[in-house]
Design brief:
CATH class: Alpha Beta
Number of strands: 8
Structural class: alpha+beta
Strand content: 35-45%
Number of helices: 2
Strand order of the largest sheet: 2-3-4-1-5-8-7-6
CATH superfamily: 2,3-Dihydroxybiphenyl 1,2-Dioxygenase, domain 1
Shape: globular
Helix content: 10-25%
Amino acid sequence: MAEEAPASGAFVHVELPAKNPEDLKMFYGAVFGWKFEDFPDMNYTMFEAPGGLGGGIRIPDENDPRRVLNHLYVDSVSDYERKIQSNGGRIIVPKTEIPGMGWFALFQDPEGTTLGIYEANPEAPQE
């Protein structure tokens, strides 16, 4: 049975910046029991938190502020990019593929807060 997609606008992914992801993995694993999966080709680590929202650990570059980045689920990144722009927001990273998973984009709301939007690929393998 296929898992039902979250409603558009639901928080579905949290990204933590880390210059040394191994230290962060040790910390959150020991303190909260998080489980991790590395994706070396993407220089990225996914985490699963007990009973809640999962996310990833990214290595920020010199132009990337060290901020927690939250992602909202949408049924179409392209449609929501248009909605964001027509309502005063700004796209800062346009629709980008996450191979085998889906697509994301980053935007700023009218107050300058940066968030992500995420669309799942319906043909991606289900866990």
